Amino acid sequence: xxxxxxxxxxxxxxxxxxxxxxxxxxxxxxxxxxxxxxxxxxxxxxxxxxxxxxxxxxxxxxxxxxxxxxxxxxxxxxxxxxxxxxxxxxxxxxxxxxxxxxxxxxxxxxxxxxxxxxxxxxxxxxxxxxxxxxxxxxxxx
Amino acid sequence: xxxxxxxxxxxxxxxxxxxxxxxxxxxxxxxxxxxxxxxxxxxxxxxxxxxxxxxxxxxxxxxxxxxxxxxxxxxxxxxxxxxxxxxxxxxxxxxxxxxxxxxxxxxxxxxxxxxxxxxxxxxxxxxxxxxxxxxxxxxxxxxxxxxxxxxxxxxxxxxxxxxxxxxxxxxxxxxxxxxxxxxxxxxxxxxxxxxxxxxxxxxxxxxxxxxxxxxxxxxxxxxxxxxxxxxxxxxxxxxxxxxxxxxxxxxxxxxxxxxxxxxxxxxxxxxxxxxxxxxxxxxxxxxxxxxxxxxxxxxxxxxxxxxxxxxxxxxxxxxxxxxxxxxxxxxxxxxxxxxxxxxxxxxxxxxxxxxxxxxxxxxxxxxxxxxxxxxxxxxxxxxxxxxxxxxx
Lengths: 141, 392
Hints:
The complex is a heterodimer of chains A (141) and B (392).
Chain A: E1 7-10, E2 12-15, E3 20-26, H1 33-36, E4 60-62, H2 72-81, E5 88-91, H3 96-105, E6 108-111, H4 115-120, E7 126-130, E8 135-139
Parallel strand pairs in A: 3-4, 4-5, 5-6
Antiparallel strand pairs in A: 1-8, 2-6, 3-7, 7-8
Helix pairs in contact in A: 2-3
Chain B: H1 3-19, E1 25-27, E2 31-33, H2 38-54, E3 63-65, H3 82-97, E4 121-122, H4 125-135, H5 144-153, E5 155-157, E6 171-176, H6 183-197, E7 202-205, H7 207-214, H8 218-231, E8 255-259, H9 260-270, E9 278-286, H10 288-300, E10 309-313, H11 315-323, H12 326-332, E11 335-339, H13 348-351, E12 356-359, H14 362-372, E13 375-378, H15 381-388
Parallel strand pairs in B: 2-3, 2-4, 6-7, 6-8, 9-10, 9-12, 10-11, 12-13
Antiparallel strand pairs in B: 1-5
Helix pairs in contact in B: 1-5, 2-3, 4-8, 6-8, 6-9, 7-8, 8-14
């Protein structure tokens, strides 16, 4: 099912107050930042990822929930230090490992539990984040 | 200590509290710091820790520390680059100057004794799930840097597994499996339950739970099982009746069923058919009892390792082995006992050019593939020892 209309949703801005507009990279499986994301390039290296081998750098990266190592926070911090961080991360449910990584790495973090978003969103759709209005806009391409 | 450091710690904790909708911070009696190997935290982590230490930061509560990238005794033998050694030692110095207890182990639950019900802030997913599931300690799965900030502030937000209602079981896991559990099945089963449950508190009943609580090697099986479970999920507590110290008998209505064929499939996913270059045991770190079990098998069967056989444990266990005269006997049998590190957080896979590792740990199998891009054979402890004897 492909949606052609724009979807605008109220979401929780957890970290960051920047306006963001960037293409989306979305995964359906849980992600362990340690192991699943290369800390020097931002490339996904979990073979269960549909975007295996692609980089999250400069994108809006969405995945449902984190799993695995508590060292994940440092992976996000490292990505940021080498300029390879995603512009924002969207999850269904925030966890402390991700949260602290985003605070240290200054990465926008949004919690979006609306099933519509997870149902409709596809790789390459443009995401606009507006922290003042607390909205996420999904624009199909 | 600089006011700025305390402020940073307080700011992060308050942010975390507000996200989880709580206003109260709770004092913790102990912190376990994860994210210590230079391999996993890199220059960013090194700078973060040195920056805190340079401001005269001191921990307010006792804090133990996870493994690093090497055993100093084998730096040359295992080809650890000098630059790696230097940076790793700088990380350790920073932690030490803040007052950390350098146990350098991922099994604080075998080293630190705390009464059930104690609130702690632990990193290291296998330690977190063991603490909540078995010991009745209360902790969320804190991120590496968050554990450092928790040690500085001595407090964390009172949410998640600090609260009674979040500790109740959410999924009843029924496993149809009547054979005895071994390391392979325990690892694969944990991994599979994690994939199916993802978040929440599974309750394990039936034969499996009985086996965990009655087997003489139940503790070792539980360690492997829980470590794998936490690897594939966000689960931080799993109830095993008779072992979980603070389980009061509730049974959830949501049921997850697992059969033998599901376990078989999980094993196939975690394990390759390649020929191992080395055999690595000790993820999580081996207890003294585990090392002694391996030693006894090698002695009884007169085995001398034909392939590199690495056991990973804490420095405390290694010293005890030295004192008992077992360490030199293990060396004679071709076993390299490494303290302070493990196959996952050490650079040896790269420095020794290892292509295939055999292990009994589902957690190690997962991370070796993802972090080091190598092939893994998952097997029971007996299969691993059999492989050690193979010259192929």
